Each structure stands twice: as C-alpha cells, then as structure tokens.
Amino acid sequence: MLICRDSVTAISVNGSDDYVWSTGDTTNSIQVNNSGWYSITASNNCKTLIDSIFVDFQNYPDSIAYTVIEICETGEVVLIAGNESYTYLWSTGESNQEVTVYDIGLYQVTITNFGCELEQQIEVVLCDVELFIPNLITPNGDGKNDTWIIDNLWFTQITPLQYLTETVI
Q1: Which pLDDT does position 131 carry in this prediction?
Q2: What pLDDT, on a 0 to 100 scale, did the predictor assign at position 127?
Q3: Among residues 30, 45, 91, 124, which one has the fewest Cβ atoms lying within 10 Å of its Cβ?
C-alpha cells in the first residue's frame, strides 16, 4: 500500500471478536504513519486468521526552487520541474520535465511521485531592459546612424509602431 508521507492512514479488518496487531493494539483498526509491515491476528469462537500488509510512505515531489523567472534576450525560457523520475503535467499540455515557453504569463505544473502530487506555479516575466531610442539619423552611408533602430523593443509590451502619414497642402 503506497501512501503519501506526512499523512496518516487507517488499516482495518472486520468480522472477528478479538484483534491483536503487531503494534500491540487490540482494536479492529489502527492508524499508521510509518513505512513497514503490519500484521494482525484476528479470532472468534470458530477460527483464528493471521494476515499482514506492507505500508510504504512515499515522499512528495521536490518543490521547484523558483516561482518567478525572467524571459530576456533569447525570447524563450526553459522551465524545469523536479526530479527526472517524477511524472509531470504542465498547463501547456506537455508532460516532460522541461518545457520551453515563449510568452510571459503564469504556468502551472503538477508533479507526481507514486500518486503523491505537488502543484506549483511559475510566473514568467519580462526582464528589465533599457530601451535606446536614437534621436538622430544620418543616412549618408558612413555606417553611423544610417538606420533608425530601437534596441530591445521586442522585450517590452509596446505594440508595433504605427507610421502616420501627414499630407501638407
């Protein structure tokens, strides 16, 4: 029987008059919170039965070391969750330990270790960048200020520039 650590479970039997557990308890049900073998001797006027069960407490998956991560220069970030032996389900629908994302936002992952689940959220935010907007253009072919380029514009949430034309009469 697999049970998540930090929980308590009951093991019980019915149908007899007298019960003796390997723990020394004499009721039909015991609470267990440690891994190991538990046996019971149950008897009534007709017969005596002996049975046992192994209880294995599993650890919850390791939590992710970060809850906020920045997306910067490459425009993508790899989110990594836990141990390779766990199973994963991301809010993106992917089931790998690692998922590559390209957008800011909140991502959720459910990490499972033998039925013990941990849900975590990771927020992907834009890193702080400084926009450099040139105020001078000299398109004379000398390689300096020949074009008007705004560095790091894609890092911001600014919508694409709209060019306005004005007719002078």
Answers
A1: 67
A2: 79
A3: 45
3-state helix, strand, coil in the chain (%, to 5): 0, 45, 55
Give phi and psi for 34, each to the nearest 5. Answer: -130, 145
Residue 79 has what DSSP assignment? E
Spatial separation of the C-alpha atoms in residues 132 and 116, rounded to whole Å: 49
CB 8 within 8 A of CB 30: no
Residue partners of 23: CB distance under 8 A and separation at least 6: 30, 38
Does residue 61 contact residue 116 with C-beta atoms inside 8 Å? yes
**125: CB partners within 8 A, 6+ apart:** 68, 69, 70, 71, 104
- In angstroms, the CA 33 to CA 10 distance is 9
Using CB atoms within 10 A of its CB, is residue 82 exposed (0-12), middle (13-18) or buried (19+)? buried
Residue 159, pLDDT score: 45
Amino acid 154: pLDDT: 54
Task: Please report the pLDDT score of residue 163 as a whole number.
Answer: 38
Tell me which residues of the chain have a pLDDT lower than 50: 158-169
Buried b (16+ CB within 10 A) or exposed e, 14-39: eebeebbbeeeeeebebebeeeeebe
